[in-house]
Amino acid sequence: xxxxxxxxxxxxxxxxxxxxxxxxxxxxxxxxxxxxxxxxxxxxxxxxxxxxxxxxxxxxxxxxxxxxxxxxxxxxxxxxxxxxxxxxxxxxxxxxxxxxxxxxxxxxxxxxxxxxxxxxxxxxxxxxxxxxxxxxxxxxxxxxxxxxxxxxxxxxxxxxxxxxxxxxxxxxxxxxxxxxxxxxxxxxxxxxxxxxxxxxxxxxxxxxxxxxxxxxxxxxxxxxxxxxxxxxxxxxxxxxxxxxxxxxxxxxxx
Length: 254
Known about the structure:
- This protein is mainly beta.
- The protein has one domain (21-247): Pectate Lyase C-like.
- It is built from two helices and 24 strands.
- It is globular and about 45 Å long.
- The model is unreliable at 1-17 (pLDDT under 50).
């Protein structure tokens, strides 16, 4: 019997033997994991990884029905060299957060209450998939697709849709919907071959806010029904904008 089991495991694909299983919300150590069913929550975080981790959503989704201002992440990576791919994350305060360098997200569709993807690291890539319908908090006036606090990050082939200022914000300041925010701690980042499309035109929608130490590149990015396509700080090196198309935008100056 022992010889039979040994032979059976030897014949299994290596990745099936090596991968861990994620079947519910919780905290996991580092390693390679595969989601094997939808995770549906009423509140709190979805999945948190404490070590370098690779998560294949395998076409499933991590979703919460929670509303309001309580912070919570669909997927959070606390260590560098982590990645997530192939699925959906929706309903959380923020969809996916990276707290380390050299990480990536690929072909994930995200919607959230405040922020789609939060990057707190360098050399992080967001590739493919979509970020849409960022709405649902009352204590923040912004709705943000991707927030970048790092250097040499890339946002490639991502579709941003229907990101407006928070409709139910209780403060007096004017809100804004922003597809990509290269924050004051960002440098030498790239946004390329994607789009930001709103179904209806509204004021206070911004395609890209580029600040930080500069050196960003915006290339082959299309924006439709955006009030202000670009807000770019004067930096040295400057942010470059090439091959970018804007349609039906009131303040289209680029």
